[in-house]
Amino acid sequence: MSDSLAYRGPACPHCAVPLQEEEQRTGSLVCAHCNRAFEATAFAAPQHTVAPTAEVVTIGPEGANACANHTRNAAVTSCQRCGLFICSLCEMNLGTGSYCPSCFDRMRTEGSLQTGVRKYRDYAGMSLSAVIFGLLLWFPFGIVIGPLAVHYALKGRKQRREEQRSVVGVTILMVLGILEVAGWMAMVGFIIYRAAQ
Amino acid sequence: MTNGTRKLVGKSATFGIRQRVYQTADGFDVEMREQYEVMQRRVLFDDVQLVTIHHRLGPLYLILTGSIASLFAFIAILIVSVDANDWEAALVPAFIGLPFLILFLARLAFGQEVITIFGRRSKAEMRFAIRKRLARETYGKICAAVREAQRGTSVPPVAEPFPEGILLPPDL
Q1: Residue A51, domain member (yes or no)
Q2: pLDDT band at A49, cuts 50/70/90?
Q3: Are residues A140 and A190 in the same domain?
Q4: Rounded Cα gap, residues A69 and A78, in angstroms
Q5: Which domain range does residue A166 map to?
Q6: What pLDDT is recorded for position A117?
Q7: pLDDT at A5
Q8: B117 vs A8, A21, A118, B62, CA distance in Å?
Q9: Looking at the domain assignment, is residue A98 inside a domain?
Q10: Is the link from the previous residue into B99 a cis peptide, with omega within 30 of 0?
């Protein structure tokens, strides 16, 4: 978050001092600030053109509904969540439907908007750590760490399926977690058996 | 979250944060891992302004690996200096320090190639240790992909008028 906020455009890859527009060119460059060399390829990123928004005045009140947020603008669609009329400026088209800005914000905050999720937990990594700790501290902590590894592996499996990635690694972790629990139970059984003798 | 139609282009690891850069149909997906938190951001082909490649040694990495290797070498030398016949005991710290010495020397000899993609709103960084050729190839591929994508989105050239005297089909 802070990284994206701090980003100020192309900079020297060595010292991170922003490069002036005239310094952004193709070829071997030397940073004016740190005097170190780097190679660069500059691109003229195309400017995005914003489609003109139709005004109600030009179309006439019979031809269009006014946008709820911009009364001068003609609505192009309605929000799929709250039904509010929205103009092309307000429309947040996510591929799955069009939403008004406030609904988009709310859905993003709730986490119900999959395409808006930019931060999540790596459950597969958590499961791997739990399995490693479980192997190191198998006895006496296997009964706690094993189920934890399985729990995280299940969550990781679901996450990977959503991402359409392979679940083989997470399944192996799940099996190892189960084996840790089974091994712990066998060990406890063995201790009880020896004590009874 | 992203789907499976992406290709890993490069990785970057600094102290605390690991980055993975994937190429997708419309740009680059950057996955930043801080322990178990994964943060995603994108650098779209349309937004790319500058792609750079540079060589670095990484002084912090050299200091860290060099210090650890020196520490274990010092312990090994200390053991031998106390009792010259006890060289077998000195092998233990020597073997522990050996991987750090190899890492130190490899970095000193080959360095690291760093590719940075600067977009309008975000950037992506990839580091290639030892594999200079792969870094060059990746740099070329990234530039070609961006060039191709930006060519596609730029304003199409105006069609030249047909020279007079050429008979055109009726619908033209």
Answers
A1: no
A2: low
A3: yes
A4: 12
A5: 123-196
A6: 61
A7: 52
A8: 13, 16, 20, 25
A9: yes
A10: no
Closest CA–CA distance from residue B123 to any residue of chain A (Å): 8
Please report which confidence band the pLDDT of residue B172 belongs to, taking 50, 70 and 90 as the band edges: very low
Residues of chain B neighbouring A122 (CB-CB closer than 8 A): 33, 36-38
Contacting residues of B for A36, CB less than 8 Å apart:
54
Contacts of B2 (CB under 8 A, 6+ apart): A163, B22, B24, B29, B40
Q: Identify whether residues A140 and A171 lie together within a single domain.
A: yes
pLDDT given at position A51: 65
Q: Which two tokens stand for residue A15?
A: 């010292």
Is residue A105 located within the same domain as residue A134?
no
Looking at this predicted complex, what is its ipTM?
Answer: 0.75
Burial of B82 (0-12, 13-18, 19+ CB in 10 A): exposed
Bridge partners, residue B11, by sequence: B20
Are residues A131 and A184 located together in one domain of the fold?
Answer: yes
Q: How many CB pairs under 8 A join A and B?
A: 95
Instruction: Judge whether A133 is closer than 8 Å to chain B, CB to CB.
Output: no
Edge-to-edge strand ranges of the sheet holding B7-13: A119-121, B37-44, B27-34, B17-23, B7-13
State whether residue B136 sits within 8 Å of chain A by CB. Answer: no
- The mean per-residue pLDDT over the stretch B110-124 comes to 92
The number of residues making up chain B comes to 172
- Structural domains of chain A, count: 3
**Residue A194: band (very low, low, confident or very high) from pLDDT cuts 50, 70, 90:** very high
With respect to residue A4, please indicate whether it lies within any of the assigned structural domains.
no
Between A38, A117, A162, which is nearest B53 by CB?
A38
